[in-house]
Automatic annotation (TrEMBL), chain A:
This is ATP-binding cassette domain-containing protein. Keywords: ATP-binding, Nucleotide-binding, Transport. It comes from Sphingomonas aurea. Gene3D superfamilies: P-loop containing nucleotide triphosphate hydrolases. It holds the Pfam family ABC_tran.
TrEMBL record, chain B:
Its main location: membrane. This is Glycine betaine ABC transporter substrate-binding protein. It comes from Sphingomonas aurea. Keywords: Membrane, Transmembrane, Transmembrane helix, Transport. It is a multi-pass membrane protein. Residues 15-203 form the ABC transmembrane type-1 domain. It comes from the Bacteria.
Length: 249, 512
């Protein structure tokens, strides 16, 4: 049997006496698109960052393709995982092309096809020689995703990746991401506090509250009223908004 | 104007030494500060301790910091480490450069956007890759601004290394201040300022080039900087002709008579086939240590100074017995050879303006002591700390209304202008006669004899050619000739350089 692409086994992360993540077990199959949803402070980002060792668990272990991520040095694990986050963190002193190619460069791989990666993210090719400061926020996040994909990573982690973008850009980029996920056969985990985004993009929605997983359903099941009170409280927000919008007309 | 040109001609070798010292201090400072800043940027406690230490160092005046390394190196090195010259200067200047280097280094690393650091980690950079590819280039502009500050401070403070016997552009400034030769002061200050401004401007270009990511600009500025350093230090790479002749160092304390005698001695040694270097402006406490360690090969000291300061003696025997005892003591304890007495004495002599002394009826130190509560005393920079002052007060209990130290030139001016009523003059000083001062007698013989004596380093004590060049000076210089030579340098108008006065003195005592 194929091991899950990524699995958390009884993982706890304590900050002092406070548990940001409390005894979470979760397995993600290859090819799935999982949305981790919860309010601020629910522990979803902390859980995500334990996958690429930006945060080390207090207890429990994380398996990448069946292998404990703490075996071997952290950089080796991170080079196999694409990571995109809200503040993007493009290197301001490098061009767009150099930013995109940084992963293969530091691990001694051949230079990737930057033009093709820009095409994948629907970026004009002439941004390649420009500096990050010259780009718009949406363009920068597209470069961030291209950088994450450049080493050929099959696992993509996104931490509130669209949180700082305007709604139009955000929607377009979300759809683009979903298309890429299908085209490239990725395993994608998207941390978001926006239930509508989760329902529209993901194949599976995991809801967290106070460091624990409180629901784990398909979007269809959640919309049908499954997953319990905490999940339904989150689903209620976009549903009510849609109803109110309909009433305006 | 010709004086200024002559002064400028002394700049190149001093500039070379100045640049070498500054460069070494900044390089060593950088080697210490860079790793420390990297650690400190990640650990706030290390930052607090390191920056606290560097700030504390900064509160110590640079002059004092330099002077402190003399006893410190003697203590730590036990004589194996050179306590004078390059090493103490290097250490003091390095410590001084640490603060701007550390402060900007830590600030530059902490100023990097945390998102960029998170991205560097997330793409899988090792700590070394993160430092090289991300942190170093992003920190560079602020860190280089710190390097610029450090460079300007170091170049300025390096002028003070003259006082611990390290040649620098400060040699011109200190010698000029002591003899009131303003062309020397000006030449030294201009050269130091020009060096600092040029380095600052070029490093400014490097900083701008890096910040604007213009590789051509910062590489060019760096190349000009490196070329300039190479050119400035050229006198060290191609030593003056006669490089095969043995090099000797003649020391001098910080007043005109010492400069003149050093040139007189240096001229004789050059004629005997030596290459001569001068270490001017050394303090009394430092210079005897310098000759004992061989940092200085020969200099002129005064019997009473060795007697009281080095031998810690309080008794006052007659001059001949004192010279004999001193010669035995220096040879036995430090290997220093007393070659000869030059013939004149330069004793501490309390002096007053003639009309004032007459009006108050003061002729002896006892008279002075009796009236001291209503009088103000001016002294040279050392006297009030010296054992002679304690001896004088034991013999003639005196308590002045005020006692103020001056550099010698200003001490005479303070007496002339009436700011002080009595001064601790020097008996060989030409200004005593020229300014009609009354020298007070010492009926209780509280002040020892101050015969000028030639002291030679242990390494030269058996060098026959060296000693043969010095011997003709024995007993040759009378106090009147010395006073006149001193006055040529010290007088206000028609000043001569120490070299000119030394040439005049050689002629006056028919020494050829």
């Amino acid at each position: 049997m194929q091991p899950p692409a990524l699995a958390w086994e009884q993982v706890t992360k304590l900050y002092g006496d406070t548990a940001a993540v409390a005894d979470v077990s979760l397995a993600v199959d290859g090819g799935s698109f999982v949305a981790l949803v919860g309010t601020s402070g629910s522990g979803k980002s902390t859980l995500l960052k334990m996958a690429n060792r930006l945060v080390e668990p207090t207890r429990g272990r994380v398996l990448l393709g069946g292998e404990d991520v703490t075996r071997g040095p952290a950089p080796a694990v991170r080079r196999r995982i694409g990571y995109v986050f809200q503040n993007i963190g493009l290197f301001p002193h490098l061009t767009v092309a150099e930013n995109v190619a940084i992963g293969p460069r530091i691990s001694g791989q051949p230079v990737p096809d930057v033009a093709q990666l820009l095409d994948l993210l629907e970026l004009p090719r002439d941004v390649a020689p420009r500096m990050p400061a010259e780009l718009s926020g949406g363009q920068r996040q597209r470069v961030g995703i291209a950088r994450a994909l450049a080493p050929g990573a099959k696992l993509l982690l996104l931490d509130e990746a669209f949180g700082a973008l305007d709604p139009v850009t955000r929607d377009a980029l979300g759809q683009r991401l979903r298309a890429l996920h299908d085209e490239l056969g990725l395993t994608t985990i998207l941390v978001t506090h926006d239930m509508a985004e989760a329902l529209l993009l993901a194949t599976r929605v995991v809801v967290m509250k106070a460091g624990r997983v409180v629901a784990d359903e398909t979007p269809a099941a959640l919309l049908a009223g499954g997953g319990g009170d905490a999940a339904q409280a989150l689903v209620a927000v976009p549903r009510d908004q849609a109803a109110r919008l309909a009433a305006v007309r | 104007m010709s004086g200024f040109l002559a002064a400028l001609s002394r700049v190149p070798p001093l500039l070379a030494a100045h640049v070498t010292l500054s460069l070494a201090a900044i390089a060593l400072g950088l080697a210490i500060a860079a790793p420390l800043a990297i650690v400190a940027a990640r650990r706030p406690r290390v930052a607090a301790v390191a920056l606290g230490f560097a700030s504390l160092i900064q509160t110590v005046p640079a002059l004092a910091l330099l002077a402190l390394f003399f006893p410190l190196l003697l203590l730590v090195g036990g004589g194996a480490l050179p306590a004078l010259g390059f090493l103490p200067s290097l250490l003091a200047l390095t410590l001084y450069a640490l603060l701007p280097l550390l402060r900007n280094g830590v600030a530059s690393l902490r100023g990097i956007d945390p998102a960029v650091i998170e991205a560097a980690d997330a793409v899988g950079m090792t700590p070394a890759q993160k430092l090289r590819l991300v942190e170093a280039p992003l920190a560079a502009p602020v860190a280089i601004a710190g390097l610029r500050t450090a460079a300007v401070w170091t170049i300025g403070a390096a002028t003070l290394s003259t006082t611990v016997g390290q040649p620098s552009l400060g040699d011109l400034i200190f010698a000029g201040l002591q003899t009131q030769s303003w062309s020397l002061v000006l030449a030294g200050c201009l050269a130091a300022a020009a060096l600092a401004l040029a380095v600052d401007a070029l490093m400014g270009l490097v900083e701008r080039g890096i910040a604007a990511r213009r590789r051509g600009l910062w590489l060019a500025a760096l190349a000009v900087l490196a070329g300039g350093m190479l050119a400035a230090t050229a006198p060290l790479w191609w030593p003056a002709k006669g490089g095969d002749r043995p090099l000797v160092t003649v020391g001098a304390k910080n007043f005109a008579e010492q400069y003149i005698l050093a040139r007189l001695i240096g001229d004789r040694l050059e004629r005997a086939g030596y290459r001569v270097e001068y270490r001017d402006g050394l303090g009394s406490a430092v210079i005897f240590g310098a000759v004992a360690s061989g940092a200085v090969d020969v200099y002129v000291d005064y019997a009473g100074t060795i007697w009281t300061n080095e031998m810690k003696r309080a008794d006052v025997p007659d001059r001949a017995a004192m010279l004999r005892t001193i010669g035995e003591w220096t040879a036995r304890t430090r290997g220093v050879r007393l070659v000869a007495a030059l013939g004149f004495e330069n004793a501490y002599a309390f002096a007053m303006r003639e009309p004032v002394a007459r009006a108050r009826g003061i002729a002896t130190l006892a008279d002075l002591a009796a009236q001291s509560p209503s009088l103000r005393l001016g002294s040279d920079l050392e006297f009030l700390e010296r054992p002679e002052w304690a001896a004088v007060r034991r013999a003639y209990p005196m308590r002045f209304a005020a006692a103020t130290p001056f550099s010698p030139t200003f001490m005479y001016q303070a007496l002339a202008s009436g700011r002080v009523d009595a001064i601790t003059a020097f008996s060989s000083d030409g200004r005593i006669a020229a300014e009609h001062l009354r020298v007070l007698t010492d009926p209780k013989h509280a002040i020892p004899g101050y015969d000028a004596i030639l002291l030679v380093a242990p390494g030269r004590a058996k060098d026959a050619r060296f000693l043969a060049a010095l011997r003709p000076l024995a007993g040759r210089i009378g106090v009147e000739a010395m006073r006149q030579a001193n006055y040529r340098v010290d007088r206000e108008a028609d000043k001569q350089s120490p070299e000119q006065a030394a040439a005049w003195l050689a002629g006056a005592i028919r020494l050829q």
